[in-house]
Design goal:
Blueprint (H helix, E strand, L loop, with lengths): L1 E5 L5 E7 L2 E4 L1 E5 H8 L6 H8 L5 E6 L2 E6 L2 H10 L4 E3 L1 H5 L1 H4 L8 H11 L5 H4 L3 H13 L6 E3 H18 L5 H22 L3 H6 L5 H33 L8 H7 L15 H32 L1 H15 L13 H13 L6 E5 L3 E3 L2 E3 L4 E4 L1 H4 L19 H5 L19 H18 E5 L7 E3 L3 E3 L4 E6 L6 H10 L1
Parallel strand pairs: 4-5, 6-12
Antiparallel strand pairs: 1-2, 2-3, 5-6, 7-9, 8-16, 9-12, 10-11, 13-16, 14-15
The structure holds protoporphyrin IX containing FE.
Length: 494
């Protein structure tokens, strides 16, 4: 039975009643039949999400016996992530990532998540991560110094390579060694088969039972290799820390050293505990996976948009010229690189690296005008919400001015949430902003990039929102190069 109801805001909302429940309008057919009937392109769930936007504030559908609700309203999203976060856990596909990531920050729920978060927090404290600014600028400068004027680069591959180097140095304090490369290759290999794996009913059980299916065998091989490499890196770090201790030196400033030294300062039961070796391995893999592809994608999309908008590019270059001239950027320049930050923000509005998030209700729960059943899956897509014309007029237009201070204040918080929100908000958010802005400034200082004509750059919504292939840019040199010696001097002073 359908009902029209009024809920405070004055907007009439039509709900479907099922017993005590009030569900949003939506697909009448079960999703697999619906998809079949519409011949949706498989592999691009954004098409389905865009289609469901027509139901207004939220949409409901069933996938086999599961209720799924897609929320579009910032206030409803806030309720799930902040006000009622305690009655939600991560949705099933993320929980299933435990087969790869074990019990790390992304997969843990409840008390276990809180403990991991308390232990990891100091490593991501704003003051702590600021120490990485010099490394970021140095690595970005080196990478783009290798480019040739008049030549071309695949900016997607370049940004991925750069973000990997930055992660290796800041997370482990090493270069991209064969071990880091192995972690990268094996996680990529696992991600390729991941969708098949999570679609298998009882995949965890099948893995544990050592069933000889090719996908499972491939996964087990990659996972074994990953665990061995990360365990070795932790053991090496342990030796390094002991040697430092013997010499009376402080522990290293990399994230792994911090995680190894940190103790829980929380609730009585777990106070003083450290991450054990297995938890450490899970956390290292989690942060590795969460931390570099996201930033690389944000930067790639930003370059694509900037190269298509010469007026934005000119203003960006003018800001960098005025703030930096020819010297290399430092941490202290960040507050002045306002427009650069606005460009990154607007790029993440149109192409949010984390393009959708989900939770599952552990009990019957009211969200906005709806009453959802226990077990209901609730999704919200940054890709869809960031293109809502109520908050971003002419949403398809790339316009960094939307992120000028005054404009930002006029929108509800969850109209723009590239880093999620509430108690599980991205722990690496400050790091990501710093990295993206410093890399943009360093590259634009030296290079003008022009998208090679004739490319069709499509989005590929995997775990992150990647471009479907290479993104070729033609390079024009602005000037011979940022002054790295000055930078080294400045580094020595700070
Ligand atoms: C542009 C870059 C990034 C974006 C768009 C992004 C986005 C997100 C989002 C949306 C979440 C919340 C997921 C959820 O609640 O379901 C998240 C969580 C997380 N992110 Fe990021 N992230 C970025 C960069 C980073 C970096 C640089 C790191 C670490 C070095 C990182 C580490 C994490 C971790 C560990 C979590 C789990 C936090 C928790 O549940 O307590 N992320 N990220």
């Amino acid at each position: 039975m359908d009902d029209e109801m009024n809920f405070g805001s004055g907007d009439a909302v039509v709900v479907k009643r099922r017993g005590r429940l009030r569900l949003p309008q939506g697909l009448r057919w079960n999703l697999p039949f619906y998809l079949f009937s519409r011949f949706f392109k498989p592999g691009n769930p954004i098409l389905l999400f865009e289609h469901l936007r027509r139901y207004g504030r939220a949409a409901h559908y069933r996938l086999l016996w599961n209720d799924i609700v897609l929320l579009h309203d910032p206030e409803d999203i806030r309720e799930v992530l902040v006000d009622k976060a305690n009655v939600f856990v991560k949705e099933r596909t993320q929980r299933r990532m435990k087969i790869l990531l074990g019990e790390g920050l992304i997969t843990a729920d409840g008390e276990s998540h809180k403990r991991h978060r308390r232990i990891a927090a100091p490593a991501f404290h704003r003051q702590r991560i600021q120490a990485y600014a010099g490394t970021i600028v140095e690595l970005a400068g080196k990478r783009c110094a290798g480019w040739q004027g008049g030549g071309r680069v695949d900016v997607a591959a370049e940004m991925m390579g750069l973000a990997l180097e930055i992660t290796a140095r800041t997370l482990f304090d090493t270069a991209v060694t064969p071990e880091i490369q192995a972690v990268n290759d094996e996680t990529n290999a696992v991600m390729e088969i991941y969708n098949t794996l999570i679609a298998l009913p009882r995949a965890e059980w099948m893995l544990a039972a050592h069933l000889p299916l090719p996908t499972l065998m491939r996964f087990r091989r990659s996972k074994r290799r990953l665990d061995a490499v990360v365990d070795q890196m932790i053991a090496d770090k342990q030796r390094e820390m002991e040697a430092r201790q013997r010499r009376g030196e402080q522990i290293g400033g990399d994230v792994l050293s911090m995680l190894m030294a940190a103790r829980d300062d929380g609730a009585e039961a777990s106070r003083g505990t450290k991450l054990n070796s297995r938890e450490l391995r899970d956390e290292v893999l989690t942060i590795f996976l969460a931390g570099y592809e996201t930033v690389a994608n944000a930067l790639t999309w930003a370059w694509k948009l900037v190269s298509e908008h010469p007026e934005v590019e000119a203003r960006l270059a003018a800001e960098v010229e005025a703030v930096l001239g020819t010297r290399a950027a430092t941490l202290e320049d960040l507050p002045q690189l306002k427009y650069t930050e606005m460009v990154v923000a607007e790029a993440m509005r149109l192409y949010p690296p984390a393009w959708a998030m989900g939770r599952q209700a552990t009990e019957e729960v009211e969200i906005g005008p709806y009453r959802l059943p226990k077990g209901c899956f609730v999704f919200f897509s940054q890709y869809i919400v960031h293109r809502d014309a109520r908050y971003f007029p002419r949403p398809e237009v790339f316009d960094p001015e939307r992120f000028a201070q005054e404009a930002k204040g006029q929108r509800p918080k969850f109209a723009y949430f590239p880093f999620g929100g509430g108690g599980r908000q991205c722990i690496g958010e400050s790091f990501a902003w710093m990295e993206a802005v410093l890399v943009m400034a360093t590259v634009i200082q030296r290079w003008r990039m022009r998208l090679e004509p004739g490319q069709r750059i499509e989005v590929q919504p995997k775990i992150t929102l990647r471009p479907a292939g290479a993104v070729w840019m033609r390079l024009e040199e602005r000037y011979a190069g940022a002054d790295t010696e000055i930078n080294e001097e400045q580094e020595a002073r700070t």
